[in-house]
Design goal:
single chain; alpha+beta; two-stranded antiparallel ribbon; 26% helix; 4 strands
Length: 72
């Protein structure tokens, strides 16, 4: 029974963490106008505007900067 509870707890924790930290690394690139964009992280796409780090009330966990865009 203890093994089952440990396994269940581990699975739930991993599921929650994978959703919370669903971020994507973007490699640096050069735009067509010659401007270089440094590599960075962005929040994972999930179809919800308010989940993005750039939205007010959210904080980018990699930079510590708060969001500045209005919620919908």
């Amino acid at each position: 029974m203890n093994r089952f509870l440990l396994l269940l707890t581990s699975m739930v924790t991993l599921t929650i963490c994978s959703q919370v930290y669903a971020d994507t690394h973007v490699k640096g690139y050069t735009r067509s106008n010659g401007t270089y964009v440094q590599s960075h992280y962005r929040s994972g796409k999930d179809g919800y505007h308010n989940n993005n780090w750039s939205v007010k009330g959210n904080v980018n966990p990699h930079t510590g900067k708060p969001g500045t865009k209005d919620r919908w």
